[in-house]
């Protein structure tokens, strides 16, 4: 089966500067695929080219195996939902849903049938006669989606749809959006700078930086084996610790020297001695009562209280390391001992940022 959407080496320059510098991706039918990256990385430019509002300088964009570059936006069978939701406040929910069908000159009886069918699936039937201006955010999101879905798009493009909303409502809308997408088996390209949205809803994520895709993978793989330092640091909350490490041989195995006289045994590995960056996630660090092999001693400088957990910022030889801990396990100013549990062997080249293959590494002590 052809990918629902395919980008082949797509390039877009503005005044000679590449906003999108040769990206390729393939989205399978029914897939929830996210483009994730910081502001300015080229997400909106990519989306505008897919929707047909911008023309690429080179490369191809295909829907179901056919190039859509020559087609105007309205002929591309792509539905767009933006962050403002664009629900008409004076029209009823039913009128909002029927709007796109009227524009397409769908006959009245057919409009009624399509509106009531989709309203049923999205739980909108009880509010069909309410006006857009009276809806809460959950209803608003469903109406905005329904307005686009009713035109039966091959692909739904969602551009930061939750970025204007409060954190507490976003959590429930994420679950709802995912449920609707799965129920309808709708192919979705979701554009966001919010890693939690991408991680919680996507089948796969493309992480973008400076107009390029650094990695395409499922949420687990993105989290566990980031291909680049940037991906490791962009994903995960609290963020990963990225520590300078001198790797040297110790007989037939290797060890890493970290700030604060911390030495971590790396086991046997084919890794040249030298300077690296070691990524250790806050949940992979433990507080231990006493010093021992592979432990580090530091002082708690700051504490973030997340309720169920505390993030301790522990100073090791001038470097702050985040440690996820149980509430009450340490206080500011206290001297603590740290040990890695089963860290994920994330070693990066400090110059290129690329992950260094560490297949042969043993577990740390
Ligand atoms: P945001 O989330 O802030 O919209 P983004 O990831 O969507 O960011 P783009 O808006 O695609 O990024 O911008 C990518 C780069 O292209 C940026 O450096 C931006 O300044 C530049 N750019 C975008 N549109 C234009 C334009 N019409 N003319 C000139 N430069 C542009």
Structure notes:
By secondary structure, the protein is of the alpha+beta class. It has two domains: 5-87 and 135-234, Rossmann fold; 241-348, Nucleic acid-binding proteins (OB fold (Dihydrolipoamide Acetyltransferase, E2P), Beta Barrel), CATH 2.40.50. It is built from eight helices and 20 strands. The strands form four sheets. The protein has a six-stranded mixed β-sheet, with helices on both faces. The protein has a five-stranded antiparallel β-sheet with strand order 13-12-11-14-20. A five-stranded antiparallel β-sheet has the order 15-19-16-17-18, with no helix packed on it. It is elongated. Adenosine-5'-triphosphate binds at residues 14, 19, 37, 39-45, 193.
The gist of it:
The protein has 2 domains: 5-87 and 135-234, P-loop containing nucleotide triphosphate hydrolases (Rossmann fold); 241-348, Beta Barrel (OB fold (Dihydrolipoamide Acetyltransferase, E2P)).
Structural key phrases:
365 residues; alpha+beta; Rossmann fold; OB fold (Dihydrolipoamide Acetyltransferase, E2P); 2 domains; six-stranded mixed beta sheet; 8 helices; 20 strands; 23% helix; 35% strand; binds adenosine-5'-triphosphate
Distance between the termini: 47 Å
The biggest beta sheet, please?
Answer: 6 strands, mixed
Annotated CATH architecture of the largest domain? 3-Layer(aba) Sandwich
Mean pLDDT: 90
| Heteromolecules bound | adenosine-5'-triphosphate
Low-confidence stretches: none
- The structural domain count equals 2
CATH class category label of the largest domain: Alpha Beta
In sequence order, what are the helices and strands, one letter per element? EEEHEEEHHHEHEHEEHHEEEEEEEEEE
Helices, by number, come to 8
DSSP helix fraction: 10-25%
The third-level CATH topology of the largest domain is Rossmann fold
* Secondary structure tally: strands: 20
Strand content: 25-35%
CA radius of gyration: 25 Å
Structural category: alpha+beta
- The CATH homologous superfamily of the largest domain is named P-loop containing nucleotide triphosphate hydrolases
Q: Reading side by side through the largest sheet, how are the strands ordered?
A: 6-7-8-3-9-10
What is the 3D form? Answer: elongated
